[in-house]
Amino acid sequence: MEMEQIISSDNRVLIIDDDPEFRTFLRSVVEGLGCVAMEAGNLSEFTAIYDQFQPTAILLDLTMPETDGIEFLRNLAKRSCKAPVLLVSGQDERILATAERLGRLFGLTMHGSLRKLMHVATLESMLQQVWQDSSGITPETLDRAIREDELVLHFQPKIDLQSGPLFPIIGCEVLVRWMHPKLGLIQPDDFIPLAEETGLIQSLDDVVLRKTIAQLQAWQNLGINHSTAVNLSPTSLTDLDFPDRIAGLLAETDIDPSMLMVEITEQAAMADVGLVTDILTQLRLKNIAVALDDFGAGYSSLVEIYRMPLSELKLDRSLIVDIGVSADARTVVKALIALARELKLPVCAEGIETIEIANFLQNTGCATAQGFYFSRPLPADTFREHIESQPVDASAFQRRTA
Ligand code: C2E
Ligand code: CA
Ligand code: CA
Fold first, then answer.
1. If pLDDT is split at 50, 70 and 90, which confidence band does 208 have?
2. Atom 15, ligand 1: which residue's CA is nearest?
């Protein structure tokens, strides 16, 4: 009888934690939200209930004596678990962040993490977010979003690290958001994977590109000429007509193609090196710049990519964050920047959150940077105000990407 009730309920939360008292606390919060909870204190209890319970969300303790959280993540992946996983742990944030990344690599939907001494309200709001997400983000609503203009662009300033302490803005990166009619502004990590899985990504990239070009034209009309980088999905890099399409869009405007940069990921670049090199070469011949994004997050080396016609190398945020805590990371970043310099490849560092990291990168010869220390991604109008209140030296950027 109990199991029938459970299965007929919409929201089923599986709590995996070895501490019975903490499980009871989590259960009371979950049930207080009107959800059904089941508890597992170890792997055998988990195995006994998982298939029947079919949870729609999982609260997972990362540190357990017999089986650690990573083992559970692997186990959930093996079961093709689609339920969002929320990590709960007393571990420090970096370990939680690494575990989250690992979960994503396993193909799980990681919904975030909570420190163990959390506020009840924080746990409640994260759980509510899980239900909202699973109810509002579907292939159908995303398709509608793309067709009915619910996607909005934000712009993260890119600053010149080598022009003194003022750190002038010399460009920006376009980051898409979804203005969902019910859920509000949704971040790309919550819908880009769905767009990729469902094949909607190509039309999404197309909309972003068109909107970017329209924005560049609007800024140019106001006398603002900034190089702007757009993220490209791996799928666009399999389309040999893409360079002509993008050139066609630019030809309808007065925008100089060198104002546009496309960012491709290491993973996309490595998928079919011949085809990708063909497409990238076409783009470069049309004067469109090409950056390799998230470098350092995967496993390729500069040796593998030096033959590609790249204009810029973007160092991944995970590597940059480590500068603050690891001497080894500082050595790796220094060596990468030195090697890139020998290859005449300017480096942009992503995810700078402190002045210490900005100074370190400035001293190692890193050309440009982005990060919350300088600015978060901004709506177009705020970005424009930001630029207008700062000294601008766009020529520095053009020199470096020529
Ligand atoms: P990305 O291309 O690596 O973009 C950088 C991400 O890091 C952005 O997240 C940005 O807000 C965030 N970020 C920048 N500086 C900092 C910092 O100092 N600290 C921290 N913690 N984060 C920082 P966002 O906007 O959530 O985008 C996530 C990813 O979604 C992007 O990663 C990109 O892969 C993808 N994406 C965004 N827009 C598009 C798009 O138009 N098309 C495609 N295909 N992918 C996109
Ligand atoms: Ca990017
Ligand atoms: Ca990146």
1. very high
2. 371
